Amino acid sequence: MDISNSPEQDSGAQANNFGGTALAVIVDWWRPILAAIVLCGLVIVVRPSDSTDRRISDRALVGQSNPADPSILLIEISGEDVRKYGRPALTRENLTVLVNRIAEGKPKRLMIDLYLGEGVSEQVDSDLAIALSRLGPQRVGLVTSPGPDDVPLATFAQHGAILDARLTADGDGWHRQLGSDTRRFGNNPAAWLATGEEKPGKVALDLRIAHQDYRSLSVDDVLNGSVNLTGKTIILSSSPDIAPTRAYLPMADAASRGSVLAVATQSVAQDYAAVKENGYWASLALQLIAIALGLLVALKAETGKRMFLLAAGFGITLLVVNLSIATSIGSSIAPTQTLACFLVMLNVTVVQRLKIIPMVSSFIKGDVSPEEAWAWRSCEASNHPALLFSAGGKIKRHNAAAEQLVGQHGSALARLCLPRYDDRAKSLVLAESDGQSFEVDWPYGEVPIAVLRDNTAAEEINRDLREQLYKDDLTGCTNRRGFDRNLIEAGRSGEKFILFFIDMNGFKQVNDTYGHDAGDELLVATAGRLQNLMRQSDVLARLGGDEFGVIMFGTENERFATLQERRMVDALSIPLRLTSTDEIVTVGAAIGHAIPESPGEEVGEILRRADLAMYRNKADLKRQREAA
């Protein structure tokens, strides 16, 4: 795949450097860029790769194994505890003993993750209520059962905060958050354990925490051992041995309810919500960067191979940066979503550069072949006038840049581009447009598309250079090179003309007597006097020194030539006052002429005869002066 810019592909070149004016870029690109942004927005909102991103994010976070908070203590009722202290879990009497023991240890907070919605007996329930009151509602929390109406007995509820300890997994079965946005089932247990605040809401679990490292004790350890409970945040729950639960932390085997609640509590205590928000904004910024990189790669790539290499390089970079967000910030990431944004913008931009949509649109209209539609895609938005011709030589498509030319010149423009069947012009001049000239490119071989490049300014420069090349610097008339060129063209064309050679008499004397400035002034005056006798179509040239040549077109009349020769002599014989010396000088001239004797006569022969005629005249004038 080659997406490099061909010479006529000005819209592609414009895209490649954001070229042209800002307005041109906006007009040409705002629709595809807007479409790409909308698609990327859908990717970000719909999150089609969410499951893949979660797995990558889970692996990156869990692998960090941050230490568990030692101030969080799990008391998990084990199978041995059940056999020793009651069935099916813990008798109400032994629970009272355990709560009194914990209260004596002066913990920071205690959450009892056991169902206390049914009474046992008035005395037993009263004893437990007294034990709970030793901690008070600020330091003890009681949980609801799966149903919102299954709340602890009022006898117990008045002494503790009501907490919603339901563990609700994400769609893939893993637990990454805890809690609900409603108070219907109670307040969030992690928020209460960490801060003491009674409020609902979801808490994100910091998967970096090594959940298996929390200290876990049995009931027997607490009742019969010397355990320091001062300042501890305690979670009392059943172990998975006696109460299997569906508590699954990502990238780990089944976890206990207590460890999940502990991870959530530590996440709140360490303000993981702020970490999560920072990670969100970092990921969002990275996705915006990915969109910009997709646009940049598609615009800058000159070939498909280069685009692939750039896309692969930037794709790997985006993946690495995503993983660094997980490791440095500690937040979940969305690498495939970021890559999706990058690829969406990349592909939309390539489609725009290749002009796929205009190509398909042209083809659907039915008046162009697939080859013409493919070729025309890059010319339609060109800054140069572009024309697509039919087999009959008519213009069937033109771009916006050609609108004015087609409107002014219509079919004449087509004839200039295609003067004859299968004959394509390389350049053209629009005489009706002040001589505006164009180079004509045919970039697509068999496809009749012409791209016009205005070279009027260059032609004017070339014309000025030609004039300087063929112009005598002193007199302003044509020089010897220009004279020869005009004479050769006249001989080739077969046009009628008379050739005059003029040699000044007395110039050397003036130049030697009064200096070169006087001699230059005399030459300029001589050229001016001769020019006054010329028609616009005639050519006057200084051939060198004090020699001049004249080509008079449109006649071969000998009588006219003799008469014109006499006029030249008379004009040059008029006395001239030199401004440089204030002297009056008089010079003469020897003049010879030649007329082509036959069509196609060699120019050199005509020059020779005119030169001989001039020298004969010069000799005659000399003899006349000597005789006088």
Automatic annotation (TrEMBL):
Coiled coil: none annotated. InterPro entries: CHASE2, DGC-Regulatory_Protein, GGDEF_dom, Nucleotide_cyclase, Rev_trsase/Diguanyl_cyclase. The keyword Transmembrane helix applies. PROSITE patterns: GGDEF (PS50887). Keywords: Membrane, Transmembrane, Transmembrane helix. The chain crosses the membrane at residues 280-299, 308-326. This is Diguanylate cyclase. It comes from Pontixanthobacter gangjinensis. The lineage of its organism: Bacteria, Pseudomonadati, Pseudomonadota, Alphaproteobacteria, Sphingomonadales.
